[in-house]
Amino acid sequence: MENINNLQTKLQTLIKSRTQLETQYQENKIVLEEFDNLNENSNIFKLID
């Protein structure tokens, strides 16, 4: 039974990691599309906290 619990915990961790990576990937795709719409003279600003 302990083995099943360990496997479930590992699976949950992997699912969480995959979800985070998928979200990051989608955000990166959106940014890339925005960059593709820029021309050579466009200014790009970076927000610094």
Automatic annotation (TrEMBL):
Protein keywords? Chaperone, Coiled coil
GO CC terms? cytoplasm; prefoldin complex
| Protein's GO biological process | chaperone-mediated protein complex assembly; protein folding
The record's annotation in InterPro entries points to: PFD_beta-like (IPR002777), Prefoldin (IPR009053)
Q: Which residues form a coiled coil?
A: 4-41
Tell me one GO molecular function of this protein.
Answer: protein-folding chaperone binding
The entry sums up its family as follows: Belongs to the prefoldin subunit beta family.
Name it.
Uncharacterized protein
Which species is this record about? Pichia kluyveri
**Taxonomy-wise, where does this protein's organism fall, top ranks first?**
Eukaryota, Fungi, Dikarya, Ascomycota, Saccharomycotina
